[in-house]
Amino acid sequence: PSLQHLLDTYTPKLSPDEQSYLDNQVTRLCSILNDHDVVTQKDFSKEAWDYMRDEKFFGMKIPKEWGGLGFSTHAVSCVLAKLATQCFDANATVAVPNSLGPGELLVRYGTDEQKEYFLPRLANGTLIPCFGLTGPHSGSDATSLIGSDCVVSKHPETGELGVVASFKKRYITLAPVAGVVGLGLNLSDPDGLLGGEGGEGFTVALLERGHEGLRMGPRHIPLNAAFMNGTVEGEDVWIPMTSILGGQERCGFGWNMFVECLAEGRGVSLPAGSIGAARTVLSGVGAYSRVRKQFKVPIAEFGGIQEAMAKAGSDGLITIAGGDVMNAIVDNHEAPMVISSVMKQNCTERGRRIVECGMDIAAGSAICRGDKNYMGNAYMSLPIAITVEGANIMTRSFQIIGQGLTRCHPHMADLLKALQLPPSEEKQAVQTFVKQFHKIVGHGVSNFFGSVSKGIGSAVSTKVRSSKAYKNGDDLLAHHEKQLLRLSNNFALTADLCFTLGGRLKFEELLMGRLADALGAIYLGYATLHHYHRRRGIDGLEALTEHALLRLEREAQDALYAASENFPGPLGPIASRVMKIGCFPLGGFTRPYADPCDDLTKEVSRLLTTPSAIRDMFEEGIYTAPEGTVHQVTDLINALPICIEADRVASSLRREKREPTAEETNLIAKADALRDALIQVDVFEHATAEEAQPGYVRPALLGTEERFASLDKTVFREAA
Predict the structure, then answer these.
(1) What is the pLDDT of residues 632-657, one digit of tens each?
(2) Predicted local confidence at residue 260, as pLDDT
(3) Residue 463 CB neighbour total at 10 angstroms
(4) Residue 572: what are its φ and ψ, rounded to 5°?
(5) Nearest 5°: CA angle at 704, between 699 and 706?
(6) I need a surface site. Which of 195, 266, 479, 496 has the fewest CB within 10 A?
(7) pLDDT tens-digit readout, 528-572
């Protein structure tokens, strides 16, 4: 890997039109949405639905020539992240048409007739799309398409060529309100009716609501979320060949479509939710920790709070940095399945940790629902993001390394292709196999010696490095790139050793999970350096970047060490020994990475809980309400400098032993009033519609009345 290559190749940026859309249309949509009302009513208002349609929120990725906005992937990510700072359900609703919806697939693969009909209607919101893939027996293994079969046949009356399909899909976001569904089917052609045009296998059909035999409408309710999610079902549904996405020639081509579609959904849309959560927590909770006092001291001064804030801050930076690079990769017309899996698993998990830290810090104010609670719904939504599009536990322990080991190895793919050549090309197959095998051995030997030399060199440089060296930006970049190169070499050696397992590797999910942790930490480390290089000059960014990279290097080191301690297989003891010598040649000395020191943790927390350029950076993409509007996050942000200045004045008064001036008295009173208002939580006269009915009495109170009815004395004073 090369940091310079990343910098030269990938630059996330917004056009003026995209920035204007974020500042205006997205801000307006956020102002329409009340998160608590949306979750309580389990739907958006018609005003919100109409605004999303009218302003083409569902057509951001559709080219302008078809009536869409033609936005970049980075712009879509920024829109989704900002929506997540106000309403996670809006994030999910807008995400699907711009990632897993059939819009982009139509642009790339649709027939002219399909494009002309569907794309303008998708762009202007006339048709809301969904994508039906997951079924009861095909969850994280969605492309197995179990229970979604279709057979090529001719219509019994017209003789038209088409397919007869039966399917039972679930967890389909937007299905209850969708006007068109892209349907993943497993196509078979037992009678050879395709005639060589198109093939069997994964095929995508386009069905509109109302198609004969198609059933859409019933809802799932994922945890406490309000976004539309439900089932798509049908038995023996006739689908003409004109409704196959791309027409007959694209039969069996669904896997290629799915790879492109999923890369954006997993690698961009889901991490965008975590980016929004990070910005909200760090902006809102960072301010709250100064506003809120315990024992007459802002809780930001407590060590436990500082630890949680610093972890949330560095995880927030990591998530944003990873998202920026991933967005730029997709905008560079690449569809990296492995990196998209890394992003999905890592960023949704870090998003969960960030919100958990925020919940722990805000405590009581974070668990009482209502307009003032800006984290509770995100807390309940992030497990959904962790589950969908390949559950994280499967993504980590199977998909990342299971897909990536052969795809990303420089020689293994060619070797496997040689094994698949027909008997007529046996001579060429043998030559290719031998050539690639020698290259693999050479690759492993090179990685071994490179790993040893880099391991010793990196350990020495880490041991002698000053704890304050990060303050020099050039040293920060040079040091951490050196460590990431070393860890990359360690990982490459370990990947080579995995081939000693042969086909058994796919069953060694504990090993693959640890290697996925290492790969994720390395990728996100490079993304964090990429972010620092681009945003260098923000005061305090060195401390935050140092904190993030120290944690990532520790994560990668610990994952690799655990792999070396538990390397499986008949050759496991040998592979384990080779790995330990290669990765950690001097034992514990060459495992130098440790968690950030307390001084650095306190500094990062200070940057996040006082007015700073770091806080300004995290506030860049959040929704803030107009002046005069009650909005908890906005009010916390605005109160922070007032409360800090009031604390400074109060401290000065105690130190100087004097009475406050009139101006100082007013400032302290204003801060106290803000504190009192901002620590309040919502209270409801009734929690359900039933409670609101006239004459309603809670069952427990009814029971109390019944018991007192049999007593002579019903109050203490009578008994006394």
Answers:
(1) 999 999 999 999 999 999 999 999 99
(2) 67
(3) 10
(4) -55, -50
(5) 95
(6) 195
(7) 999 999 999 999 999 999 999 999 999 999 999 999 999 999 999
Long-range contacts for 709-718 (Cβ within 8 Å, ≥24 apart)?
none
Contact (Cβ atoms closer than 8 angstroms) between residue 313 and residue 544: yes
pLDDT confidence band for 191 (50 / 70 / 90)? very high
Rounded-to-10 torsion of CA 277, 125, 178, 265 = -40
Residue type, position 99, single letter: S
Beta strand ranges found along 369-516 (DSSP E): none
Pair 85, 280: CB distance under 8 Å? yes
> Residues with Cβ < 8 Å from 104, sequence gap 6 or more?
61, 62, 260, 261, 264
Give residue-wise pLDDT tens across range 38-82: 999 999 999 999 999 999 999 999 999 999 999 999 999 999 999
Nearest 5°: CA angle at 218, between 217 and 220? 130
Q: Is the dihedral of CA 659, 665, 667, 669 positive or negative?
A: positive
**At 206, which amino acid appears?**
L
Q: What is the reported pTM? A: 0.94
pLDDT of amino acid 435? 85
Lowest-pLDDT range, 385-389, 435-439, 525-529, 700-704? 435-439
Distance CA 249, CA 198 (A): 4
User: Residue holding tokens 């009482």?
Assistant: 368
Strands 149-154 and 180-188: parallel
Structure tokens at 140: 């994280």
DSSP 3-state assignment of 627? coil
Q: Is 16 exposed, middle or buried (0-12, 13-18, 19+ CB in 10 A)?
A: exposed
Distance of alpha carbon 315 from alpha carbon 318, whole angstroms: 5
Tokens of 77: 């990510």
Cα–Cα distance, 509 to 393 (Å, whole number): 10
The whole-angstrom distance between residue 129's C-alpha and the CA centroid of its chain comes to 21
* DSSP one-letter string for 37-86: HHHHHTS--HHHHHHHHHTTGGGSSS-GGGTS----HHHHHHHHHHHHTT
Report how far residue 362's alpha carbon sits from residue 292's, in angstroms, rounded to the nearest whole number.
9
Please report which helix (H) or strand (E) contains residue 201, including its range: strand 201-208
- Token pair, residue 149, equals 């079969």
Give the whole-angstrom CA distance, residue 160 versus residue 147.
25
> How many Cα atoms occupy the beta-carbon half-sphere of 90 within 13 Å?
32
Pairing mode, strands 180-188 and 129-132: parallel
- How deeply is 612 buried, as exposed, middle or buried, from its count of CB atoms within 10 A (0-12, 13-18, 19+)? middle
Q: Going by DSSP bridges, is the β-strand pair 180-188/201-208 parallel, antiparallel, or unpaired?
A: antiparallel
Strand, coil or helix: what is 197? coil
What pLDDT is attached to residue 711? 87
For residue 156, the SS3 value is coil
**What's the pLDDT at 254?**
87
How many residues are present in the chain? 720
Residue by residue, DSSP assigns 306-325 as HHHHHHHHHHHHHHHHHHHH
CA distance 492 to 582: 11
Asked if 160 is an active-site residue, the reply is: no
Helix axes 88-95, 376-387, angle to 10 degrees: 30
- pLDDT score recorded for residue 414: 76
User: Which tokens sit at 542?
Assistant: 């060195």
Given a contact cutoff of 8 angstroms between Cβ atoms, the answer to whether 344 and 270 are in contact is yes
Instruction: Give yes or no for a contact between 261 and 335, defined as CB atoms under 8 angstroms apart.
Output: no
Of the candidates 55, 233, 264, 389, the residue annotated as catalytic is 389
Q: Which structure tokens are listed for 210?
A: 């109302």
Rounded to whole angstroms, how far apart are CA atoms 679 and 285? 12
Q: What is the pLDDT of residues 422-471, one digit of tens each?
A: 888 888 888 887 888 888 888 889 989 999 999 999 999 999 999 999 99
The single-letter DSSP state of residue 146 is T
Terminal CA-to-CA distance of the chain, rounded, Å? 83
Cα 410 to Cα 406: distance, rounded to the nearest angstrom:
8
